[in-house]
Amino acid sequence: MSFRLRRTILVALALGGALAALLLHMLESSNVNANARTEAERSAIVTLRAIADTAGWLGAEGEGVRAAVASWSGGADGRKVRISNTDNRTIEASSFPEDVANGELPRRMVRDEKPIYDLGQELASAVEGNAGDAAATKEVVALEWSKDGLLTIATPIFKDGAVVGIVQTVSKPAVGAAISVPWWPLAVGVVVICVVFLAGAFVIGERKMALVAPPIPWTVERL
Predict the structure, then answer these.
(1) Which of 20, 61, 74, 104 has the fewest CB atoms inside 10 Å of its own CB, making it the most exposed?
(2) At what angle do helices 184-211 and 3-57 cross, to 10 degrees?
(3) CB atoms within 10 A of CB 56
(4) Domains, the chain, with CATH or none
């Protein structure tokens, strides 16, 4: 096998290996980030339901609710908590700066806060749609990721089996941003594959050259 042909094979293998490494890295990064976000969502939902249960036990109003919101706010993920009483159309407790800026809590919702009330109605409707299935009712959660990695979730607050409000949290889990998967394992794999294939191509080329028999001279004898 000529040097030029072996070089062509090496270049082809290198390009193919690089493309395979890129595709594998993208797939691995996607899987890692998806799994990490799923785990972050589960953890946030567990916390959200604990807040909702506490708020429901306290009747979704009063000093106890405000103390609970203060204790659940902050942390490593910068969690903000809002408890709204949709029966009274009030924001009972909140660690959202915009809620505090609009007036001392508790207070009635202002016009700009109508989306909070609408969300409460949507969650209440979802609960009604799951009527008769207690497990499904408890699973009603609104969840959304923003482009900058903020996780916003909300769930109903129940009192005596009826929806009386909602609890909302916004946090930024450590996995909100994309997780970087290291390149070096894939790079090492590509190099090993290229070396193996190049060595194989070289050996095959040398064997073919050795197996070529020299030409047999033909002679004509005169009788």
Answers:
(1) 104
(2) 160
(3) 21
(4) 47-171 (3.30.450.20)
Q: Does residue 61 contact residue 92 with C-beta atoms inside 8 Å?
A: yes
pLDDT surpassing 60 at residue 218: no
Token digits for 83?
Answer: 């408890």
The Cα angle at residue 208 between residues 204 and 210, in degrees rounded to 5: 115
Rounded-to-integer distance, Cα 164 and Cα 61, Å: 10
CB distance 208 to 3 below 8 Å: no
Measured between alpha carbons, how far is 32 from 58 in angstroms, rounded to an integer? 39
What are the CA-CA distances from residue 71 to residues 65, 80, 208 (Å)? Answer: 10, 11, 78
Beta bridge partners of 153: 143, 169
Phi, psi at 155, each rounded to 5°: -150, 155
Q: Give me the residue label for tokens 């064997």.
A: 207
The count of other CB atoms within 10 Å of the CB of residue 124 is: 18
Q: In what order do the strands lie in the sheet with 90-94?
A: 107-108, 90-94, 80-85, 162-171, 151-159, 142-145
Taking only the tens place, the pLDDT of each residue in 57-100 is 888 888 889 998 999 898 888 899 999 998 889 999 999 999 98
